[in-house]
Write a structure and sequence with these properties.
Length: about 625
């Protein structure tokens, strides 16, 4: 009683496209076939619970490779299908799914953006790797007879009786020559682990051994030593109160293969307003550059969809590692649709809020620990602030400034301890290199001021962001590197403009630099004669362009030589002296000021050393006279 049929008139146009276009993610066929098997079991479970089907103790899916025969079988003991159902669900419904799918995602227009995990293609993805697909199925329904459906091309099919004895479905894929790799146990295991590691029904992998390895009397079709592939109750599906710290850590190791312990984690467990579960881990940083490679795995009802879907998960969270399971996501749509989808946006906002809440609670309840984590989490937090206003708003009180000496302060604490309460503008002095800027730092700390440390790649952007954003409506934040100016080190006393002018002249002449700008200020200390300052904004800009831009081109930075009117050398230069000695002093002062910021380049260093020796010699000679 064989029965033939054509699946759809359009099938002829569509199958070749499916095969060609989905080439890159071919391996999803396995997810689709195995998840169908799990779905069929889930349906049976519900029927059994309602007393509409025989109870089953041992639900399972077997994936069996037979390299010799060239087949992969996916066997389940789910609901099975009657002959009518096969025609309806496989030939009509399933195919219309594939048809809709292709209508929406014409390869020409949407190829590069792709569809997330190619959801919605379903059963027909089997034809991406198969020259023939056979279904043997026996429905759970009373009086059902087993049926066989087979198709060589996904366009026409034949139906006949099957010899299947037990309830459920076996899908047999006759794998194309060119897709032979999927028959190897290793590839098959990898693919199953990628997509099926957390599917909700036990999945076993085995292979049929070639005859020579077979023992006498062993049955042909029996899978040899099946190995279990998945964990049917992944940690994220459990109640947070039922999970132990060790379980969270173990899950982290297993899923992300990171043997460094995570710092802390957030277990998302919402049913309302979204059905959303997951665990987000804050990883320990290795170094500033590699740390940016987090992984967020997206699942749909325990079925893996894809890694790092930036349309679904707020981009800055990609620095974390975690799993998110979102059964209600409309995944059979294009990425551009997801980007503009209200549901997705709300979900992102929810995740963002949860992460911010957690950071604030860590800060409030375990400040000491939190400050220790800060070195690892700060790039993430700062990036989040820049990218997301709401996140910034929430997390503001938990932003830490590390200061020289190791103490951490919140922005408000820093301001309260260091800034003039009467001024609206609050200046935060910072260092970008504690060792190199030690001398400058000391000028601040010796006055009892805290110097902040901002020494990572993201800081230039973060500081500009903080200045521009409204951290607090009653104050304006300004960040100044310790070499950015001398306002924090000087009295408000106005210096004499004539004196400044004549010193500027003197220095310009001595240094052979007509562009030089000289400032004359009364420093609170008389230990240094001068400091070179580089204007903050232009320097930051130059730093950013140095990091990201092309080499060889240097952005101009505005430099000033700030002289300390309280220093005896500067006082000396203001008198009429021997030109020759003054010139040496000017150069020496300029070199020393430069050295306080960065090492001298070699020619200048040689001149400096020679001059230093000359000056010492002169000193001794003068003393002898
Ligand atoms: P979807 O899973 O989204 O419904 P598919 O193309 O994957 O679409 O499958 C189409 C239909 O075929 C399923 O809805 C189901 O009715 C039927 N089906 C597929 N595989 C099985 C199976 N192993 N057991 C029972 N029914 C199945
Ligand atoms: Mg399916």
């Amino acid at each position: 009683m064989a029965q033939k049929g054509t699946i759809s008139i359009q099938a002829e146009n569509i199958m070749p496209v499916i095969k060609r276009w989905l080439y890159s993610d071919k391996d999803i066929f396995l997810r689709e076939i195995v998840s169908n098997a799990c779905d069929a079991i889930a349906k049976h479970r519900v029927l059994a619970l309602n007393g509409e089907a025989e109870p089953e103790e041992n639900y399972r899916v077997d994936v069996v490779a037979d390299e010799k025969e060239g087949t992969i079988k996916v066997v389940d003991n789910g609901v099975g299908m009657t002959g009518d159902e096969v025609i309806k669900y496989i030939a009509q419904v399933a195919f219309s799914g594939a048809e809709d799918f292709l209508k929406k995602y014409k390869p020409e227009q949407d190829e590069s953006s792709g569809i997330i995990g190619h959801f919605g293609l379903g059963f027909y993805s089997a034809f991406m790797v198969s020259k023939k697909v056979v279904i043997d199925t026996l429905s759970y329904q009373d009086g059902a007879t087993p049926v066989r459906w087979e198709s060589d091309d996904g366009m026409t099919y034949e139906m006949s009786d099957s010899n299947r004895q037990v309830r459920g479905t076996t899908i047999t894929l006759y794998i194309n020559e060119e897709d032979h790799e999927f028959l190897h146990l290793y590839t098959l295991r990898q693919t199953l682990e990628k997509y099926c590691a957390f599917m909700p029904v036990e999945i076993y992998l085995s292979e049929i051994k070639p005859p020579e390895e077979k023992k006498e009397g062993e049955e042909d079709e029996k899978p040899a030593e099946p190995e279990k592939i998945n964990e049917i109750h992944p940690l994220w599906t459990k109640k947070p109160s039922d999970c132990t710290e060790e379980e969270y850590k173990e899950f982290y190791r297993d899923v992300f293969h990171d043997f460094e312990e995570p710092l802390f984690w957030i277990h998302l467990n919402a049913e309302y307003p979204f059905n959303l579960k997951g665990i987000l881990y804050f990883p320990k940083l290795k170094n500033e550059f590699t740390s940016n490679e987090g992984v967020i795995k997206l699942y749909n009802n325990q079925v893996f969809v894809a890694d790092n879907i930036k349309e679904v998960i707020p981009e800055f969270l990609m620095l974390l590692k975690g799993v998110i399971d979102c059964p209600d996501l409309p995944l059979n749509v294009s990425r551009s649709f997801l980007q503009n989808d209200g549901y997705v946006r709300k979900m992102q906002a929810y995740i963002t809020r949860k992460v911010a809440d957690r950071l604030v609670s860590e800060f409030t309840n375990r400040r000491e620990e939190y400050e220790k984590y800060w070195d690892d989490i700060h790039p993430f937090v700062k990036y989040g602030c820049i990218r997301d206003d709401k996140f910034f708003d929430k997390v503001k009180p938990a932003l830490i400034i590390k200061t020289v000496g190791g103490k951490g302060k919140t922005i408000s604490e820093y301001v309260a301890d260091n800034c003039d309460a009467d001024k609206e503008e609050k200046t935060i002095y910072y260092s970008s290199d504690e060792k190199r800027q030690a001398h400058l730092i000391e000028m601040y700390t010796s006055q009892g001021k805290d110097v902040a440390i901002f020494d990572t790649l993201i800081d230039n952007n973060f500081l500009s962001f903080m200045e521009y954003s409204q951290f607090d409506k009653d104050m304006k934040l300004r960040f100044m590197r310790v070499d950015a100016g001398v306002d924090g080190l000087t009295d408000d006393v106005q210096a004499d403009e004539d004196a400044r002018k004549s010193l500027e002249e003197k220095f310009r002449k001595a240094l052979g630099n007509e562009e030089l700008t000289v400032e004359l200020k009364s420093f609170k200390t008389d230990s240094v004669p001068a400091m070179i300052t580089v204007e903050e904004q232009s320097r930051r800009f130059a730093d950013i362009s140095k990091t990201w831009g092309s080499r060889g081109f240097e952005m101009p930075v505005k430099r000033t030589l700030a002289l300390n009117s309280r220093h005896p050398l500067i006082a000396h230069l203001q008198k009429n002296n021997s030109d020759e000695l003054d010139e040496m002093i000017c150069r020496q002062i300029d070199d020393l000021a430069e050295m306080a910021r960065s090492p001298l380049e070699s020619g200048r260093m040689v001149a400096f050393l020679e001059r230093s020796n000359q000056l010492l010699t002169r000193l001794v000679e003068n003393n002898q006279n």
